[in-house]
Every structure is written in structure tokens, then in C-alpha cells.
Amino acid sequence: MHTLRPIAVLFAAALLAGGAAHAQQAPNPLDVVPDKMPFSEPYGAPIPLARAQAAIQAAAAEAAKRGWAVNIAVVDSGANLVAFARMDGAQLGSISIAEHKARAAVKYRRPTKVFEYGVQKSGLNYIMTLDDVIASRGGIPLIEDGHIIGAIGCSGGTGSQDEVACTAGAATINK
Asked: Could you please report the per-residue DSSP string of 104-140?
């Protein structure tokens, strides 16, 4: 029993030293100060109805091609709903989620995938305390000539399915 005690003490010391070394090597991501402001595209004029409908058509076509039924919302640069489509068979609970994804994408000027990644992969749980955030992919800003004119949000499938459909819709604007 006496021979195990020194081994246990050495093992504990090694764990503590390793933990201290690891803590010194990995800086806290919250302490990193970027040189430039991320996601700083300026807001532009609101997306016209015809362009919003074209984005919805492209997203719906992509979803239909894959056999998915999703809800699709497009908001303008002020986060106001411009156009909406509910594909046949899309779940009712996803109507408001599609709108929420679009609003979060335009308000925060970034894809909602950024929030999902921050919470799930980076442990930045404070994100969930921010107003109007949704940490689920499927919301993408619509950018024309370097200005945000709106955002598209899709919901009804998995997050990755929603993102694929939204990317097809966003491609009609983001070139």
C-alpha cells in the first residue's frame, strides 16, 4: 500500500502540471481581439418583393428536388417579412422558425450557422443570452453590392437540409 501512495502522488502532480501547461497553450477565444470588425457589411435598401420571391422559388426548387418540405421566409434589411412560402407537407412548427432564422441572420449580419457553431463547437453559451438569436443553421444574409438587403430563412428539415435549401435561395442574390 505504501508503494502505491508515491505513484498516486506523482500521477496527480503530472495531471496538474499537464493541465496547467494546457491552460497556458490555449488562449480563451473570448480574449482574442480581431483587427477588423467581423460581419460588418452595411445595411442597404430593402429587398424588393420580386427578388424575395425569386429567392424563395430557388430554395423551394432545391428542396423539392431532394424531396424535402420546408418553410421559407425572406425578410428585408430591417428584418420585416417580405415573402413567405410553406411547401406542401412542411411542418407547422417550422413556420415561425424559418422567419426567426431570417430575422436573426439580418439583424446580426451573419449566417445562423455561426451561432450554432459557437454554442455547439466553441462552448460560447453566452450566445443564447442575446436577443433574437437562434443557434440553428438555415438563416443566410442576402448581400448585394456589399450591402445587406435582407435574409432568407428555411426550416422544416434538419439544420443541414435547411441550410442547403437556403443556400440555393441566397445564390439568386449573393453572387
From this structure: HHHHTTS-THHHHHHHHTS--GGGGGSTT---SS-EE
In single-letter form, the type of residue at position 32 comes to: V
Per-domain residue ranges of the chain: 49-170
Q: What is the DSSP string of 24-87?
A: HHS--GGG---SS-SS-PPB-SPPPHHHHHHHHHHHHHHHHHTT---EEEEEETTS-EEEEEE-
Q: How far does Cα 164 stand from its chain's mean position?
A: 13
Q: Look at the domain 49-170 and name its fold.
A: Beta-Lactamase (3.30.450)
Question: What is the gyration radius of the CA atoms in the chain, in angstroms?
Answer: 22
The number of residues making up the chain comes to 175
Contact 72, 59 (CB under 8 A): yes
Q: Identify the three-state secondary structure at position 91.
A: coil
C-alpha cell at 160: 443541414
pLDDT in tens, 6-65: 554 444 454 455 555 455 677 776 788 889 988 989 999 999 999 999 999 999 999 999
| Strand (E) or helix (H) holding 12 | helix 4-25
